[in-house]
Amino acid sequence: MSSCLHPMLNVAIKAARAAGALINRAALDVEAVRVSQKQINDFVTEVDQAAEQAIIDTLLTAYPSHGILAEESGSERGAKNADFVWIIDPLDGTTNFIHGFPVYGVSIALAVKGRVEHAVVYDPTRNDLFTATRGRGAFLNDRRIRVSKRTRLAESLLSTGFPFRPGDDFKSYLRMMADVMPRTAGLRRAGAAALDLAYVAAGFTDGFFEAGLSIWDVAAGSLLVTEAGGLVGNFTGEADFMEQRECLAANPRIYGQLVPILGKYSKFASAGDKAAVRQAIAEQEPASGPDAATSGTPDASSDERDSGSPSPF
Q1: pLDDT in tens, 244-280
Q2: Kindly report the CA angle at 265 between 269 and 305, in degrees rounded to 5?
Q3: Which of 45, 112, 205, 303 is the most buried (most CB within 10 A)?
Q4: Does 91 belong to an annotated binding site?
Q5: Which residues contact 212 (CB under 8 A, 6 or more apart)?
Q6: How confident is the model at residue 295 (pLDDT cuts 50, 70, 90)?
Q7: Is 174 in a helix, a strand, or coil?
Q8: Which of this chain's residues are annotated to bind Mg(2+) (predicted)?
Q9: For residue 114, what are the CA distances in angstroms to 61, 67, 84, 85, 271?
């Protein structure tokens, strides 16, 4: 398979496998891994840092004139103001990893003048390699993948991510899930957005939505989805979502059914929709006392927590 791939994608695969080997070795004795906390419920390990170093070294050895945007080191490495920028999450699902929960992966994307052209998402625990090049389709190992063919939301399995940081709008997110769950066959929370998007691309799930994601969480997975025939955007269905910290991905029919449900929870929703959501939350569980600070408004979660690292776009 590798002989037919774009050279830059081959280098990304090499980098992802190198990181995956480090992660798998560390997973044999995960309790010995040093863990530090970036903020509450947001962890980084020595494995994240070693995997990121291995990825960056591999990429810059092959392409020293390229730029880097990585979760742990930001844009410290690589050329500045380059047209070619590698977007890296060395260990997506760190919390899963440090608990020995085997759902995590390596995410690498190459953006050329702001548009993602190549993508790799690698699951080291299963040795599953998801790849895509713009215009050439998406693959899982040697097999071409496509999004699911389900047309009814009631028959669909969706994945999501739960808010977990101070400042997240918990009540609004619970209301959103309450709107979605009764309309579907099930809702899952695996804890690794890059793999969630890869699973939509492979048809394992029919859709995915989450707020508060950074560029490195979604860059590679979003290309997998579109190259597999799916759609990706923000909660209102707009395609320019990469820096907006909310992501919706699904096959086209399910995507069209999710936008009217999730759109009112977007930070880009109309004032009327936001007011209706606030009213629904107030009627369900009136905010009072110390909990009131977390009730917020539907568009607060993305703006109130950290805004992420600088983007090359």
Answers
A1: 889 999 999 999 999 999 999 998 877 887 777 777 7
A2: 100
A3: 205
A4: yes
A5: 161, 163, 165, 168, 245, 246, 301, 302, 305
A6: very low
A7: helix
A8: 71, 89, 91-92, 217
A9: 22, 12, 8, 8, 31
Tell me the C-alpha distance between 15 and 250, whole Å: 28
Other C-beta atoms closer than 10 Å to the C-beta of 105 total 33
Query: Which amino acid is residue 33, in one-letter code?
Result: V
Residue carrying the six token digits 């909310």: 246
The full set of domain ranges for the chain reads 2-136, 153-299
Q: What are phi and psi of 184, to 5 degrees?
A: -125, 175
Q: How far is CA 235 from its chain centroid?
A: 14
SS3 of residue 134 by DSSP? coil
What span, in angstroms and rounded, lies between the C-alpha atoms of 278 and 87?
36
CATH entry, 2-136, from 3.30.540.10, 3.90.870.10, 3.40.50.2300, 3.40.50.1820: 3.30.540.10
Cα distances (angstroms) measured from residue 199 to each of 36, 56, 219, 234? 29, 26, 15, 18
Q: Does domain 153-299 have CATH number 3.40.190.80?
A: yes
**What does the alpha-carbon distance between residue 53 and residue 51 come to, in Å, rounded to a whole number?**
5
Q: Phi, psi at residue 250, to the nearest 5°?
A: -170, 170
C-alpha 104/C-alpha 47 separation (Å) is 12
Lowest mean pLDDT segment, chosen from 30-44, 66-80, 235-249, 264-278: 30-44
Judge contact between 214 and 311, C-beta under 8 A: no
